[in-house]
Amino acid sequence: MYTTTVRTDFVAQHYLTVPNPGPEGELHSHHFRVELEFRGPELNEYDYLVDIDDARAALADIADRYTDATLNNLPEFSGYNPSVERFARVVFGRVTERVADDTVTELTVTVWEDDQAAAGYDAAV
């Protein structure tokens, strides 16, 4: 299985909406790092798994969308607790809409909210 990984980082804000979230229930910022790992068993005719420029462009769109944003105020989080797990799922959906190389069969999105804590979402594409 081949893999290609790209990543970016940005600062965004959120507050958790679960019962008794403690200090996480107050608006606060995270320096998020988003990693995309594309996987597939074959390369294309140019010996690429994924066009890395397309992958980087998808990440640039993610950073543009979420830099300095309050996640709770965005429609993709409406009705959801804006956890780092939910954020990973949201990023997965946005990336798979944009990057659709036939050789990519799986995508893992990992969202780090700091240097010690991350959550991910992976599935077939």
TrEMBL record:
GO terms for molecular function: lyase activity; metal ion binding. InterPro entries: 6-PTP_synth/QueD, 6-PTP_synth/QueD_sf. Transmembrane segments: none annotated. Its cofactor is Zn(2+). The keyword Ribonucleoprotein does not apply. The keyword rRNA processing does not apply. Keywords: Lyase, Metal-binding, Zinc. PANTHER family: 6-PYRUVOYL TETRAHYDROBIOPTERIN SYNTHASE, PYRUVOYL TETRAHYDROBIOPTERIN SYNTHASE. This is 6-carboxytetrahydropterin synthase. It comes from Haloglomus irregulare.
